[in-house]
Amino acid sequence: MKNYDLIVIGSGPAGFSAAMRALDFGLSICIVEGAHLGGAGVMNGALTSKTMYELSMDYAVAARTDRGYRSGSLSVDFGQVIKTVMQAAKEKQYQMLSQIETFSDGKPYPGSLCLKRGWAKFIDSHTISVTGKQGTETLKAKSFVIATGARPRHAPGLDIDHERIIDSDDLLKLTKFPERMLIVGSGIIGCEMATIFSNFKQTEVHLLDRANRVLPYEDDDVSSFVSKNLEDNGVIIHHTAHLRTINKHPNHLEVILDYDDGHSKVIEVDVALVAIGRVPNTDNLGLEEIGVTTTERGTLEIADHCVLRDANNTCHIYAAGDITGHAQLYSVAEFQGRLASEQIADTPCYPMDYSHMSTLMFFKPEVASVGRNEKQLRAANTPYKVAYYSNQLVNRAIAMRSTMGFIKIIVSNGDEPKILGMRAGGPQASAYIVSVAHLINQGNSLVEVLRIFYPHPSLAEGIQECLRTLSGKSIYKPEAFPEFIKFKEWKPEVKR
Ligand SMILES: Cc1cc2nc3c(=O)[nH]c(=O)nc-3n(C[C@H](O)[C@H](O)[C@H](O)COP(=O)(O)OP(=O)(O)OC[C@H]3O[C@@H](n4cnc5c(N)ncnc54)[C@H](O)[C@@H]3O)c2cc1C
Ligand SMILES: NC(=O)c1ccc[n+]([C@@H]2O[C@H](COP(=O)([O-])OP(=O)(O)OC[C@H]3O[C@@H](n4cnc5c(N)ncnc54)[C@H](O)[C@@H]3O)[C@@H](O)[C@H]2O)c1
Prior knowledge:
The protein has 496 residues and is an alpha/beta fold. 28% of the residues lie in helices and 26% in strands.
Protein backbone atom coordinates (compact mmCIF):
# COMPACT_ATOMS: atom_id res chain seq x y z
CA MET A 1 0.00 0.00 0.00
CA LYS A 2 1.42 3.38 -1.03
CA ASN A 3 2.26 5.66 1.90
CA TYR A 4 2.53 9.41 1.23
CA ASP A 5 3.62 12.37 3.32
CA LEU A 6 0.39 14.13 2.38
CA ILE A 7 -2.90 13.21 0.79
CA VAL A 8 -5.04 16.12 -0.41
CA ILE A 9 -8.69 15.29 -0.97
CA GLY A 10 -10.09 17.55 -3.71
CA SER A 11 -8.25 19.43 -6.46
CA GLY A 12 -10.08 22.78 -6.30
CA PRO A 13 -8.21 25.99 -5.41
CA ALA A 14 -7.78 24.80 -1.81
CA GLY A 15 -6.53 21.29 -2.61
CA PHE A 16 -4.35 22.22 -5.58
CA SER A 17 -2.65 25.09 -3.75
CA ALA A 18 -2.10 22.90 -0.67
CA ALA A 19 -0.42 20.26 -2.85
CA MET A 20 1.75 22.78 -4.68
CA ARG A 21 2.90 24.47 -1.47
CA ALA A 22 3.71 21.04 0.03
CA LEU A 23 5.85 20.37 -3.04
CA ASP A 24 8.01 23.35 -2.04
CA PHE A 25 8.89 21.39 1.11
CA GLY A 26 9.88 18.26 -0.81
CA LEU A 27 6.93 16.15 0.39
CA SER A 28 5.45 13.18 -1.47
CA ILE A 29 1.87 14.16 -2.24
CA CYS A 30 -1.18 12.43 -3.63
CA ILE A 31 -4.13 14.50 -4.86
CA VAL A 32 -7.43 12.62 -4.97
CA GLU A 33 -10.15 14.03 -7.21
CA GLY A 34 -13.57 12.48 -7.78
CA ALA A 35 -14.88 14.80 -10.49
CA HIS A 36 -13.39 17.80 -12.36
CA LEU A 37 -9.74 18.73 -11.96
CA GLY A 38 -9.69 22.24 -10.48
CA GLY A 39 -13.07 21.85 -8.77
CA ALA A 40 -15.43 24.82 -8.84
CA GLY A 41 -12.42 27.04 -9.32
CA VAL A 42 -12.41 25.84 -12.92
CA MET A 43 -15.54 23.90 -13.93
CA ASN A 44 -19.12 24.97 -13.23
CA GLY A 45 -17.70 27.78 -11.11
CA ALA A 46 -15.29 30.67 -11.11
CA LEU A 47 -13.45 30.19 -14.43
CA THR A 48 -16.34 28.96 -16.57
CA SER A 49 -18.75 31.59 -15.23
CA LYS A 50 -16.21 34.36 -15.73
CA THR A 51 -15.49 33.23 -19.29
CA MET A 52 -19.20 33.36 -20.02
CA TYR A 53 -19.38 36.77 -18.34
CA GLU A 54 -16.53 38.18 -20.47
CA LEU A 55 -18.18 36.90 -23.67
CA SER A 56 -21.50 38.41 -22.62
CA MET A 57 -19.87 41.77 -21.83
CA ASP A 58 -18.17 41.78 -25.27
CA TYR A 59 -21.52 41.05 -26.86
CA ALA A 60 -23.19 43.83 -24.87
CA VAL A 61 -20.57 46.32 -26.10
CA ALA A 62 -20.98 45.16 -29.68
CA ALA A 63 -24.75 45.54 -29.36
CA ARG A 64 -24.55 49.21 -28.30
CA THR A 65 -26.02 51.74 -30.66
CA ASP A 66 -25.51 54.95 -28.65
CA ARG A 67 -21.83 55.62 -29.37
CA GLY A 68 -21.64 56.33 -33.05
CA TYR A 69 -20.97 52.74 -34.08
CA ARG A 70 -23.47 50.07 -35.01
CA SER A 71 -22.51 46.51 -35.83
CA GLY A 72 -24.11 45.00 -38.92
CA SER A 73 -26.06 41.85 -38.24
CA LEU A 74 -25.04 40.86 -34.73
CA SER A 75 -25.93 37.34 -33.67
CA VAL A 76 -24.78 34.87 -31.06
CA ASP A 77 -24.60 31.09 -31.17
CA PHE A 78 -25.09 29.45 -27.77
CA GLY A 79 -23.19 26.32 -28.84
CA GLN A 80 -20.13 28.42 -29.73
CA VAL A 81 -20.35 30.29 -26.42
CA ILE A 82 -20.30 27.00 -24.49
CA LYS A 83 -17.46 25.70 -26.68
CA THR A 84 -15.38 28.78 -25.86
CA VAL A 85 -16.17 28.43 -22.16
CA MET A 86 -15.06 24.78 -22.25
CA GLN A 87 -11.85 25.76 -24.07
CA ALA A 88 -10.99 28.11 -21.20
CA ALA A 89 -11.64 25.37 -18.63
CA LYS A 90 -9.57 22.80 -20.57
CA GLU A 91 -6.69 25.29 -20.94
CA LYS A 92 -6.49 25.63 -17.16
CA GLN A 93 -6.88 21.91 -16.53
CA TYR A 94 -4.02 21.11 -18.92
CA GLN A 95 -1.79 23.62 -17.11
CA MET A 96 -2.60 21.84 -13.85
CA LEU A 97 -1.96 18.41 -15.37
CA SER A 98 1.32 19.59 -16.89
CA GLN A 99 2.56 20.63 -13.49
CA ILE A 100 1.45 17.35 -11.90
CA GLU A 101 3.28 15.40 -14.64
CA THR A 102 6.41 17.56 -14.26
CA PHE A 103 6.68 16.54 -10.61
CA SER A 104 5.42 12.97 -10.93
CA ASP A 105 7.34 10.11 -9.30
CA GLY A 106 10.84 9.50 -10.65
CA LYS A 107 11.46 13.07 -11.86
CA PRO A 108 14.74 14.71 -10.74
CA TYR A 109 13.10 17.18 -8.36
CA PRO A 110 12.61 17.07 -4.61
CA GLY A 111 9.08 16.09 -3.73
CA SER A 112 6.58 14.24 -5.93
CA LEU A 113 3.01 14.58 -7.04
CA CYS A 114 0.46 12.06 -8.15
CA LEU A 115 -3.19 12.40 -9.09
CA LYS A 116 -5.67 9.63 -8.29
CA ARG A 117 -9.09 9.84 -9.91
CA GLY A 118 -11.84 8.67 -7.58
CA TRP A 119 -13.81 9.43 -4.43
CA ALA A 120 -11.90 9.40 -1.14
CA LYS A 121 -13.28 8.05 2.11
CA PHE A 122 -11.50 7.71 5.47
CA ILE A 123 -11.02 4.18 6.76
CA ASP A 124 -9.03 5.32 9.79
CA SER A 125 -7.16 8.49 10.63
CA HIS A 126 -4.16 7.58 8.42
CA THR A 127 -5.89 5.53 5.70
CA ILE A 128 -8.38 6.28 2.93
CA SER A 129 -10.06 4.28 0.21
CA VAL A 130 -10.32 5.79 -3.27
CA THR A 131 -13.13 4.48 -5.42
CA GLY A 132 -13.00 5.29 -9.11
CA LYS A 133 -13.71 3.73 -12.49
CA GLN A 134 -10.82 1.28 -11.99
CA GLY A 135 -12.14 -0.01 -8.65
CA THR A 136 -11.11 0.74 -5.08
CA GLU A 137 -7.59 1.41 -3.84
CA THR A 138 -6.31 1.97 -0.31
CA LEU A 139 -3.76 4.71 0.44
CA LYS A 140 -1.99 5.88 3.56
CA ALA A 141 -0.50 9.24 4.56
CA LYS A 142 1.10 11.00 7.50
CA SER A 143 -1.08 14.11 6.97
CA PHE A 144 -4.28 15.01 5.15
CA VAL A 145 -5.88 18.16 3.78
CA ILE A 146 -9.63 17.85 3.29
CA ALA A 147 -10.53 20.27 0.50
CA THR A 148 -13.75 18.81 -0.83
CA GLY A 149 -15.50 22.14 -1.43
CA ALA A 150 -19.22 22.72 -1.70
CA ARG A 151 -22.12 21.98 -4.03
CA PRO A 152 -25.32 23.89 -4.92
CA ARG A 153 -27.91 23.94 -2.14
CA HIS A 154 -31.29 22.46 -3.07
CA ALA A 155 -34.40 23.76 -1.34
CA PRO A 156 -36.87 21.23 0.02
CA GLY A 157 -39.86 20.85 -2.28
CA LEU A 158 -37.97 22.11 -5.33
CA ASP A 159 -37.54 19.23 -7.72
CA ILE A 160 -34.24 19.92 -9.52
CA ASP A 161 -34.43 17.75 -12.65
CA HIS A 162 -31.10 19.10 -14.04
CA GLU A 163 -32.77 19.84 -17.41
CA ARG A 164 -35.43 22.49 -16.93
CA ILE A 165 -35.09 23.11 -13.20
CA ILE A 166 -31.35 23.38 -12.84
CA ASP A 167 -28.55 24.52 -10.53
CA SER A 168 -25.26 26.21 -11.43
CA ASP A 169 -23.64 22.81 -12.15
CA ASP A 170 -26.11 22.30 -15.02
CA LEU A 171 -25.65 25.60 -16.85
CA LEU A 172 -23.08 24.31 -19.32
CA LYS A 173 -25.42 21.45 -20.24
CA LEU A 174 -28.03 23.83 -21.69
CA THR A 175 -28.24 23.45 -25.46
CA LYS A 176 -29.67 26.86 -26.35
CA PHE A 177 -30.44 30.23 -24.80
CA PRO A 178 -33.67 29.78 -22.85
CA GLU A 179 -36.31 32.18 -24.17
CA ARG A 180 -37.46 32.85 -20.61
CA MET A 181 -35.56 32.06 -17.44
CA LEU A 182 -36.31 32.37 -13.74
CA ILE A 183 -33.38 32.71 -11.37
CA VAL A 184 -34.23 31.75 -7.79
CA GLY A 185 -31.84 33.46 -5.36
CA SER A 186 -30.46 36.97 -5.73
CA GLY A 187 -27.03 36.39 -4.20
CA ILE A 188 -23.79 36.58 -6.16
CA ILE A 189 -24.46 33.64 -8.48
CA GLY A 190 -28.05 34.76 -9.14
CA CYS A 191 -27.02 38.34 -9.96
CA GLU A 192 -24.01 37.25 -12.05
CA MET A 193 -26.14 34.85 -14.11
CA ALA A 194 -28.87 37.49 -14.49
CA THR A 195 -26.16 39.85 -15.82
CA ILE A 196 -24.77 37.26 -18.24
CA PHE A 197 -28.09 36.15 -19.71
CA SER A 198 -29.46 39.71 -19.95
CA ASN A 199 -26.23 40.85 -21.65
CA PHE A 200 -26.75 38.34 -24.46
CA LYS A 201 -30.26 39.74 -25.00
CA GLN A 202 -31.66 36.35 -26.07
CA THR A 203 -33.46 35.57 -22.80
CA GLU A 204 -36.19 37.24 -20.77
CA VAL A 205 -34.63 37.05 -17.31
CA HIS A 206 -36.72 36.97 -14.12
CA LEU A 207 -34.85 37.28 -10.82
CA LEU A 208 -36.58 36.23 -7.62
CA ASP A 209 -35.55 38.43 -4.71
CA ARG A 210 -37.30 37.26 -1.56
CA ALA A 211 -35.47 39.70 0.75
CA ASN A 212 -36.52 42.87 -1.10
CA ARG A 213 -32.90 43.52 -1.89
CA VAL A 214 -30.45 41.64 -4.01
CA LEU A 215 -27.18 40.73 -2.23
CA PRO A 216 -28.93 41.03 1.14
CA TYR A 217 -25.65 41.07 3.10
CA GLU A 218 -24.43 44.25 1.36
CA ASP A 219 -25.36 47.81 2.37
CA ASP A 220 -28.63 49.10 0.96
CA ASP A 221 -26.99 51.62 -1.40
CA VAL A 222 -24.81 48.89 -2.95
CA SER A 223 -27.78 46.58 -3.25
CA SER A 224 -29.88 49.33 -4.91
CA PHE A 225 -27.02 50.10 -7.31
CA VAL A 226 -26.91 46.44 -8.40
CA SER A 227 -30.73 46.16 -8.65
CA LYS A 228 -31.03 49.30 -10.75
CA ASN A 229 -28.30 48.20 -13.15
CA LEU A 230 -29.86 44.76 -13.53
CA GLU A 231 -33.22 46.34 -14.29
CA ASP A 232 -31.61 48.78 -16.74
CA ASN A 233 -30.10 45.73 -18.44
CA GLY A 234 -33.58 44.25 -18.87
CA VAL A 235 -33.83 41.92 -15.86
CA ILE A 236 -37.29 41.68 -14.30
CA ILE A 237 -36.74 41.56 -10.53
CA HIS A 238 -39.56 40.16 -8.40
CA HIS A 239 -38.89 41.90 -5.09
CA THR A 240 -40.32 40.35 -1.88
CA ALA A 241 -41.47 37.36 -3.89
CA HIS A 242 -41.44 33.81 -2.52
CA LEU A 243 -41.54 30.80 -4.76
CA ARG A 244 -44.65 28.75 -3.95
CA THR A 245 -44.28 26.14 -6.67
CA ILE A 246 -43.10 25.34 -10.18
CA ASN A 247 -45.56 23.27 -12.23
CA LYS A 248 -43.99 21.44 -15.12
CA HIS A 249 -45.88 21.47 -18.43
CA PRO A 250 -44.62 19.80 -21.62
CA ASN A 251 -43.47 23.09 -23.19
CA HIS A 252 -43.07 25.45 -20.27
CA LEU A 253 -42.75 25.85 -16.51
CA GLU A 254 -45.56 27.58 -14.65
CA VAL A 255 -44.17 29.48 -11.68
CA ILE A 256 -46.35 30.70 -8.80
CA LEU A 257 -44.93 33.55 -6.75
CA ASP A 258 -46.34 34.85 -3.46
CA TYR A 259 -45.49 38.43 -2.51
CA ASP A 260 -45.06 39.83 1.01
CA ASP A 261 -48.10 42.13 0.56
CA GLY A 262 -50.36 39.10 0.03
CA HIS A 263 -50.81 39.08 -3.73
CA SER A 264 -49.63 36.27 -5.98
CA LYS A 265 -48.43 36.13 -9.55
CA VAL A 266 -48.13 33.36 -12.13
CA ILE A 267 -45.36 33.57 -14.70
CA GLU A 268 -44.28 31.26 -17.50
CA VAL A 269 -40.61 30.38 -18.15
CA ASP A 270 -38.63 27.71 -19.95
CA VAL A 271 -35.81 27.19 -17.44
CA ALA A 272 -35.51 27.84 -13.71
CA LEU A 273 -32.01 28.23 -12.24
CA VAL A 274 -31.79 27.70 -8.48
CA ALA A 275 -28.89 29.62 -6.88
CA ILE A 276 -29.60 29.77 -3.17
CA GLY A 277 -26.19 29.11 -1.66
CA ARG A 278 -23.77 26.19 -1.50
CA VAL A 279 -23.47 23.40 1.04
CA PRO A 280 -20.19 21.77 2.11
CA ASN A 281 -19.24 18.33 0.75
CA THR A 282 -18.79 16.30 3.92
CA ASP A 283 -21.11 13.38 3.12
CA ASN A 284 -19.53 10.01 2.32
CA LEU A 285 -16.12 11.16 3.53
CA GLY A 286 -16.07 8.63 6.36
CA LEU A 287 -15.67 11.39 8.95
CA GLU A 288 -17.24 9.09 11.53
CA GLU A 289 -14.28 6.71 11.10
CA ILE A 290 -11.92 9.43 12.31
CA GLY A 291 -14.24 10.80 14.98
CA VAL A 292 -14.68 14.17 13.27
CA THR A 293 -18.01 15.94 13.54
CA THR A 294 -19.34 18.81 11.48
CA THR A 295 -20.83 22.09 12.69
CA GLU A 296 -24.58 22.76 12.48
CA ARG A 297 -23.97 24.22 9.01
CA GLY A 298 -22.22 21.01 7.97
CA THR A 299 -18.79 22.67 7.78
CA LEU A 300 -15.49 21.53 9.30
CA GLU A 301 -14.27 23.86 12.01
CA ILE A 302 -10.63 24.87 11.71
CA ALA A 303 -8.18 26.66 13.97
CA ASP A 304 -5.97 29.52 12.77
CA HIS A 305 -3.62 27.39 10.70
CA CYS A 306 -6.38 25.28 9.19
CA VAL A 307 -5.89 22.26 11.44
CA LEU A 308 -9.21 20.61 12.30
CA ARG A 309 -10.59 21.88 15.57
CA ASP A 310 -11.70 18.57 16.88
CA ALA A 311 -12.09 16.95 20.27
CA ASN A 312 -10.23 13.85 19.07
CA ASN A 313 -7.02 15.79 18.50
CA THR A 314 -6.72 14.70 14.88
CA CYS A 315 -3.82 17.11 14.57
CA HIS A 316 -2.48 15.69 11.31
CA ILE A 317 -5.77 16.41 9.48
CA TYR A 318 -6.39 19.85 8.04
CA ALA A 319 -9.24 21.42 6.11
CA ALA A 320 -9.26 24.28 3.61
CA GLY A 321 -11.63 26.08 1.27
CA ASP A 322 -15.42 26.11 1.02
CA ILE A 323 -15.70 23.19 3.43
CA THR A 324 -14.50 25.37 6.32
CA GLY A 325 -17.48 27.74 6.43
CA HIS A 326 -15.37 30.84 5.74
CA ALA A 327 -16.21 33.07 2.76
CA GLN A 328 -16.67 30.80 -0.24
CA LEU A 329 -14.07 32.46 -2.43
CA TYR A 330 -11.26 31.22 -4.63
CA SER A 331 -8.67 33.41 -2.91
CA VAL A 332 -9.68 32.25 0.57
CA ALA A 333 -9.55 28.59 -0.49
CA GLU A 334 -6.13 29.04 -2.08
CA PHE A 335 -4.73 30.90 0.93
CA GLN A 336 -6.04 28.33 3.41
CA GLY A 337 -4.67 25.42 1.36
CA ARG A 338 -1.20 26.96 1.29
CA LEU A 339 -1.32 27.73 4.99
CA ALA A 340 -2.28 24.14 5.83
CA SER A 341 0.76 22.82 3.97
CA GLU A 342 3.08 25.35 5.59
CA GLN A 343 1.85 24.16 8.95
CA ILE A 344 2.22 20.50 7.96
CA ALA A 345 5.84 21.25 7.01
CA ASP A 346 6.24 22.97 10.37
CA THR A 347 7.28 26.24 8.73
CA PRO A 348 6.57 29.52 10.50
CA CYS A 349 3.72 31.28 8.74
CA TYR A 350 1.25 34.09 9.25
CA PRO A 351 -2.19 33.23 10.61
CA MET A 352 -5.09 34.00 8.30
CA ASP A 353 -6.27 37.61 8.44
CA TYR A 354 -9.67 38.00 6.77
CA SER A 355 -9.91 41.77 7.47
CA HIS A 356 -8.63 42.74 4.03
CA MET A 357 -10.32 39.97 2.05
CA SER A 358 -11.82 41.24 -1.19
CA THR A 359 -14.63 39.98 -3.40
CA LEU A 360 -15.26 40.78 -7.05
CA MET A 361 -18.79 40.63 -8.35
CA PHE A 362 -19.22 40.33 -12.08
CA PHE A 363 -22.19 42.50 -12.88
CA LYS A 364 -22.65 45.32 -15.38
CA PRO A 365 -20.78 47.31 -14.22
CA GLU A 366 -18.68 45.21 -11.87
CA VAL A 367 -18.78 45.67 -8.09
CA ALA A 368 -15.89 44.99 -5.73
CA SER A 369 -15.67 44.90 -1.99
CA VAL A 370 -12.96 44.75 0.62
CA GLY A 371 -13.13 44.77 4.40
CA ARG A 372 -16.23 45.62 6.36
CA ASN A 373 -19.45 47.35 5.33
CA GLU A 374 -21.83 49.63 7.28
CA LYS A 375 -24.18 46.76 8.18
CA GLN A 376 -21.36 44.79 9.80
CA LEU A 377 -19.98 47.79 11.69
CA ARG A 378 -23.41 48.76 13.02
CA ALA A 379 -24.04 45.19 14.13
CA ALA A 380 -20.74 45.32 16.02
CA ASN A 381 -21.54 48.79 17.47
CA THR A 382 -18.36 50.19 15.88
CA PRO A 383 -18.47 53.95 15.15
CA TYR A 384 -17.31 54.99 11.68
CA LYS A 385 -17.17 57.70 9.05
CA VAL A 386 -18.13 56.96 5.46
CA ALA A 387 -17.74 58.88 2.21
CA TYR A 388 -19.28 58.22 -1.20
CA TYR A 389 -17.75 59.59 -4.39
CA SER A 390 -19.51 59.14 -7.71
CA ASN A 391 -17.73 58.22 -10.94
CA GLN A 392 -19.71 61.10 -12.48
CA LEU A 393 -16.84 63.34 -11.30
CA VAL A 394 -13.95 61.06 -12.31
CA ASN A 395 -12.32 62.17 -15.58
CA ARG A 396 -11.47 58.67 -16.80
CA ALA A 397 -15.09 57.59 -16.33
CA ILE A 398 -16.22 60.73 -18.17
CA ALA A 399 -13.81 59.91 -21.01
CA MET A 400 -15.12 56.32 -21.12
CA ARG A 401 -18.66 57.76 -21.28
CA SER A 402 -19.36 55.32 -18.49
CA THR A 403 -20.00 57.21 -15.28
CA MET A 404 -22.34 54.70 -13.65
CA GLY A 405 -20.24 53.86 -10.61
CA PHE A 406 -18.98 54.96 -7.23
CA ILE A 407 -16.37 54.58 -4.54
CA LYS A 408 -17.50 54.23 -0.93
CA ILE A 409 -14.88 54.12 1.79
CA ILE A 410 -15.43 53.56 5.49
CA VAL A 411 -12.86 54.65 8.09
CA SER A 412 -12.65 54.34 11.86
CA ASN A 413 -13.83 57.24 13.91
CA GLY A 414 -10.79 57.94 16.13
CA ASP A 415 -8.13 60.64 16.04
CA GLU A 416 -6.14 58.68 13.48
CA PRO A 417 -8.79 57.22 11.16
CA LYS A 418 -7.87 54.00 9.39
CA ILE A 419 -9.60 52.34 6.46
CA LEU A 420 -12.05 49.62 7.51
CA GLY A 421 -13.64 48.83 4.17
CA MET A 422 -14.43 49.90 0.64
CA ARG A 423 -17.18 49.14 -1.85
CA ALA A 424 -16.69 50.15 -5.46
CA GLY A 425 -18.98 49.87 -8.46
CA GLY A 426 -18.03 50.67 -12.03
CA PRO A 427 -15.67 49.62 -14.77
CA GLN A 428 -12.33 48.19 -13.56
CA ALA A 429 -13.46 48.07 -9.91
CA SER A 430 -12.01 44.56 -9.79
CA ALA A 431 -8.61 45.91 -10.83
CA TYR A 432 -8.15 48.58 -8.18
CA ILE A 433 -9.85 47.03 -5.11
CA VAL A 434 -6.64 45.25 -4.12
CA SER A 435 -4.85 48.60 -3.72
CA VAL A 436 -7.18 49.34 -0.82
CA ALA A 437 -6.74 45.80 0.55
CA HIS A 438 -3.03 46.68 0.83
CA LEU A 439 -3.84 49.88 2.72
CA ILE A 440 -6.06 47.99 5.17
CA ASN A 441 -3.41 45.31 5.61
CA GLN A 442 -0.69 47.88 6.29
CA GLY A 443 -2.91 49.67 8.79
CA ASN A 444 -1.86 53.13 7.61
CA SER A 445 -3.73 56.18 8.88
CA LEU A 446 -5.78 58.38 6.55
CA VAL A 447 -3.07 61.04 6.70
CA GLU A 448 -0.49 58.53 5.50
CA VAL A 449 -2.56 57.09 2.67
CA LEU A 450 -3.33 60.58 1.36
CA ARG A 451 0.37 60.97 0.47
CA ILE A 452 0.05 58.43 -2.35
CA PHE A 453 0.08 59.71 -5.98
CA TYR A 454 -2.74 58.38 -8.15
CA PRO A 455 -2.00 58.34 -11.88
CA HIS A 456 -4.20 60.39 -14.22
CA PRO A 457 -6.52 59.64 -15.82
CA SER A 458 -7.46 56.57 -13.82
CA LEU A 459 -10.66 55.32 -12.26
CA ALA A 460 -8.64 54.85 -9.07
CA GLU A 461 -8.56 58.64 -8.70
CA GLY A 462 -12.05 58.21 -7.27
CA ILE A 463 -10.38 56.46 -4.31
CA GLN A 464 -8.13 59.46 -3.77
CA GLU A 465 -11.00 61.94 -3.88
CA CYS A 466 -13.11 59.74 -1.60
CA LEU A 467 -10.26 59.58 0.93
CA ARG A 468 -9.86 63.37 0.68
CA THR A 469 -13.62 63.77 1.25
CA LEU A 470 -13.23 61.83 4.51
CA SER A 471 -10.77 64.44 5.73
CA GLY A 472 -12.72 67.42 4.33
CA LYS A 473 -10.11 68.15 1.64
CA SER A 474 -11.64 66.95 -1.63
CA ILE A 475 -11.11 69.04 -4.77
CA TYR A 476 -14.81 68.85 -5.72
CA LYS A 477 -17.02 69.71 -2.74
CA PRO A 478 -20.11 67.92 -1.39
CA GLU A 479 -21.86 71.32 -1.15
CA ALA A 480 -21.59 71.77 -4.93
CA PHE A 481 -22.41 68.15 -5.82
CA PRO A 482 -24.63 66.75 -3.06
CA GLU A 483 -25.78 63.90 -5.33
CA PHE A 484 -22.26 62.84 -6.19
CA ILE A 485 -20.27 63.39 -2.99
CA LYS A 486 -21.62 62.30 0.38
CA PHE A 487 -20.21 62.11 3.86
CA LYS A 488 -21.72 60.58 6.99
CA GLU A 489 -20.66 59.75 10.52
CA TRP A 490 -22.24 56.97 12.60
CA LYS A 491 -22.03 56.28 16.32
CA PRO A 492 -23.97 53.72 18.34
CA GLU A 493 -26.80 55.18 20.41
CA VAL A 494 -25.83 55.58 24.05
CA LYS A 495 -28.33 53.60 26.14
CA ARG A 496 -29.36 55.32 29.40
C1 LIG B 1 -20.88 29.62 -10.40
C2 LIG B 1 -19.75 29.98 -9.47
C3 LIG B 1 -18.99 31.09 -9.71
C4 LIG B 1 -17.95 31.44 -8.84
N1 LIG B 1 -17.23 32.57 -9.10
C5 LIG B 1 -16.25 32.94 -8.24
C6 LIG B 1 -15.48 34.10 -8.47
O1 LIG B 1 -15.66 34.81 -9.47
N2 LIG B 1 -14.53 34.43 -7.58
C7 LIG B 1 -14.30 33.69 -6.46
O2 LIG B 1 -13.43 34.04 -5.66
N3 LIG B 1 -15.02 32.57 -6.21
C8 LIG B 1 -15.98 32.18 -7.07
N4 LIG B 1 -16.71 31.05 -6.83
C9 LIG B 1 -16.41 30.29 -5.60
C10 LIG B 1 -15.15 29.41 -5.81
O3 LIG B 1 -15.26 28.67 -6.98
C11 LIG B 1 -15.01 28.50 -4.60
O4 LIG B 1 -14.95 29.27 -3.43
C12 LIG B 1 -13.76 27.64 -4.71
O5 LIG B 1 -13.76 26.86 -5.86
C13 LIG B 1 -13.64 26.74 -3.47
O6 LIG B 1 -12.50 25.94 -3.61
P1 LIG B 1 -12.37 24.54 -2.85
O7 LIG B 1 -11.05 24.00 -3.27
O8 LIG B 1 -12.66 24.72 -1.43
O9 LIG B 1 -13.54 23.65 -3.42
P2 LIG B 1 -13.95 23.20 -4.89
O10 LIG B 1 -13.45 24.14 -5.91
O11 LIG B 1 -15.40 22.95 -4.83
O12 LIG B 1 -13.17 21.83 -5.10
C14 LIG B 1 -13.45 20.70 -4.34
C15 LIG B 1 -13.11 19.47 -5.14
O13 LIG B 1 -13.17 18.34 -4.29
C16 LIG B 1 -13.70 17.25 -5.01
N5 LIG B 1 -14.23 16.28 -4.05
C17 LIG B 1 -15.29 16.43 -3.22
N6 LIG B 1 -15.43 15.35 -2.43
C18 LIG B 1 -14.44 14.50 -2.77
C19 LIG B 1 -14.06 13.20 -2.33
N7 LIG B 1 -14.71 12.57 -1.35
N8 LIG B 1 -13.01 12.59 -2.95
C20 LIG B 1 -12.34 13.20 -3.95
N9 LIG B 1 -12.65 14.43 -4.40
C21 LIG B 1 -13.69 15.07 -3.82
C22 LIG B 1 -14.75 17.89 -5.89
O14 LIG B 1 -15.05 17.05 -7.00
C23 LIG B 1 -14.06 19.19 -6.28
O15 LIG B 1 -13.35 19.05 -7.48
C24 LIG B 1 -17.71 30.65 -7.69
C25 LIG B 1 -18.47 29.51 -7.45
C26 LIG B 1 -19.48 29.16 -8.34
C27 LIG B 1 -20.29 27.92 -8.07
N1 LIG C 1 -17.73 36.63 -7.85
C1 LIG C 1 -17.62 35.85 -6.77
O1 LIG C 1 -16.80 36.02 -5.90
C2 LIG C 1 -18.55 34.69 -6.66
C3 LIG C 1 -19.38 34.35 -7.72
C4 LIG C 1 -20.25 33.30 -7.55
C5 LIG C 1 -20.27 32.60 -6.37
N2 LIG C 1 -19.45 32.94 -5.37
C6 LIG C 1 -19.50 32.22 -4.08
O2 LIG C 1 -20.46 31.19 -4.14
C7 LIG C 1 -21.30 31.26 -3.01
C8 LIG C 1 -22.68 30.80 -3.35
O3 LIG C 1 -23.34 31.76 -4.18
P1 LIG C 1 -24.92 31.90 -4.13
O4 LIG C 1 -25.29 33.07 -4.96
O5 LIG C 1 -25.53 30.59 -4.42
O6 LIG C 1 -25.19 32.16 -2.59
P2 LIG C 1 -25.39 33.51 -1.76
O7 LIG C 1 -25.31 33.11 -0.35
O8 LIG C 1 -24.51 34.59 -2.28
O9 LIG C 1 -26.88 33.95 -2.10
C9 LIG C 1 -27.98 33.11 -1.91
C10 LIG C 1 -29.24 33.93 -2.15
O10 LIG C 1 -30.32 33.04 -2.18
C11 LIG C 1 -31.38 33.55 -1.37
N3 LIG C 1 -32.12 32.40 -0.90
C12 LIG C 1 -31.74 31.47 0.01
N4 LIG C 1 -32.70 30.53 0.14
C13 LIG C 1 -33.69 30.87 -0.72
C14 LIG C 1 -34.94 30.29 -1.06
N5 LIG C 1 -35.36 29.17 -0.49
N6 LIG C 1 -35.70 30.91 -1.99
C15 LIG C 1 -35.28 32.05 -2.57
N7 LIG C 1 -34.11 32.64 -2.30
C16 LIG C 1 -33.32 32.05 -1.38
C17 LIG C 1 -30.66 34.35 -0.28
O11 LIG C 1 -31.51 35.30 0.28
C18 LIG C 1 -29.51 34.97 -1.07
O12 LIG C 1 -29.91 36.15 -1.70
C19 LIG C 1 -21.27 32.70 -2.55
O13 LIG C 1 -21.37 32.77 -1.15
C20 LIG C 1 -19.95 33.22 -3.02
O14 LIG C 1 -19.03 33.24 -1.97
C21 LIG C 1 -18.60 33.98 -5.48
